Amino acid sequence: MDTVTAQSKGNYADVNGLKMYYEIHGEGFPLVLIHGGGSNINTTFGRILPSLAKTNKVIAVEMQAHGHTADIDRPLTFEQDADDIAALLKQLNIAKANILGFSNGASTTLELAIRHPQVVNRIIVASTMYKKGGAQPWFWDMMANATFEGMPQIYKDAFIKINPDKDALYNMYKRDVARMQSFKDIREEDIKGIQAPTLIIIGDNDVVTPEHAVEMYRQIEHARLMIYPGGHGDYLGEITTIKPGQKDYAALPVIEAFLKEN
Q1: Is 61 a member of any domain?
Q2: What was the pLDDT predicted at 3?
Q3: How far is the C-alpha of 216 from the C-alpha of 222, rounded, in Å?
Q4: What whole-number distance in Å separates Cα of residue 262 and Cα of residue 253?
Q5: Which helix (H) or strand (E) holds 101?
Q6: What is the pLDDT of residues 172-200, one digit of tens each?
Q7: What is the CATH number of the domain that holds 80?
Q8: Which of 213, 186, 211 minimizes the C-alpha distance to 200?
């Protein structure tokens, strides 16, 4: 039977055979935060989470093989991640939630809206594509020739700070690379079927092309689109993109306003 147990530094839920780590911050309507590949709660959302927790019940998760959540013997897929989030919400007795996903986390968010529409209120998908052709060609070249040495050191340090097992770190890296190398397009009919109000966010120098963001905006019936100057996560304060002394994050007020809409 699935159970939820409290831990001193957060919480763990047994979902679909996975011991998933999550944290709850603040009060209000539930908002799930889903981090990017190779990342964790803090590296993706650490700069904006305190602000979001002022007006939302933030449920920040760490997905299979990432952060505090150990890997298990099953495929690593966006569909499975979406099923895990849905199972977690059920355990927490949350009927509906807003979802904010970044990069790989946004791919999971799209799958959640497709596979479990009943649990989704509004979604925010940041720096993601629904088909392979939506990413810059250099991204797929990088994935084809990926090396562990090329993984941002700040991600490695963040993982080791949580889990000193270097084999687990390398396993996470291999899993994430393999998932992207075998990336499968989401069917257009599934994208068009998303009914949740959707905010699409990218940078104009992102992994995702502006043209693809516009295409996705046209496909989703109740979509809004924001394109910021900058790269992959600048607008959120993602840890690999923040500048020294940076305290303002361009997307935060837009996200907060979108979440307050009726």
Answers
A1: yes
A2: 40
A3: 11
A4: 16
A5: strand 97-102
A6: 999 999 999 999 999 999 999 999 999 99
A7: 3.40.50.1820
A8: 213
Q: Which residues contact 239 (CB under 8 A, 6 or more apart)?
A: 39, 42, 43, 44, 46, 47, 154, 155, 158
- Distance CA(237)–CA(242), nearest Å, equals 5
Residue 187's nearest CA partner among 79, 85, 102 is 79
- Taking the CB of residue 161, how many other CB atoms lie within 10 A of it? 11
Taken in order 178, 181, 182, 186, is the CA torsion positive or negative?
A: positive
CB 10 within 8 A of CB 68: yes
The letter for the amino acid at 256 is E
Contact criterion met (CB below 8 Å) for 116 and 95: no
Residue 247 has a pLDDT of 83
- Identify the domain containing residue 217 by its residue range: 4-257
Given the structure tokens 């933030």, which residue do they identify?
58
Residue 214: count of CB within 10 angstroms of its CB: 14
Res 1 pLDDT > 90? no
Cα 72 to Cα 95: distance, rounded to the nearest angstrom: 27
CB 82 within 8 A of CB 116: yes
pLDDT at residue 243, as a whole number: 84
- Count of domains observed in the chain: 1
Our CA angle for 86, 180, 250, nearest 5°, is 70
Average of pLDDT values for 62-86?
A: 97
Q: What are 87-124's pLDDT values in tens digits?
A: 999 999 999 999 999 999 999 999 999 999 999 999 99
CA distance 241 to 206: 11
Q: Which residues sit opposite 199 in a β-bridge?
A: 124, 224
Asked if the model's pLDDT at residue 133 lies above 60, the reply is: yes
Residue 262 counted as domain residue: no
